[in-house]
């Protein structure tokens, strides 16, 4: 099922543990040794976090990557979260 959602990545909180990389291949190591998110429509959130929008069937992958982050640097947002 295709779902519209956003992945918010707080790169300031990221410790480069990379647990998310093995759960969702859109998370990759950036040149600075931290994680970034590829694909989707990227923008900066008001607090400096990376915010990437997707409209696909990979919501479960994104949520699994977020749950695996030991420092809580990843949030997955859907329209349901806003209601």
Automatic annotation (TrEMBL):
It comes from the Archaea. This is Ferredoxin.
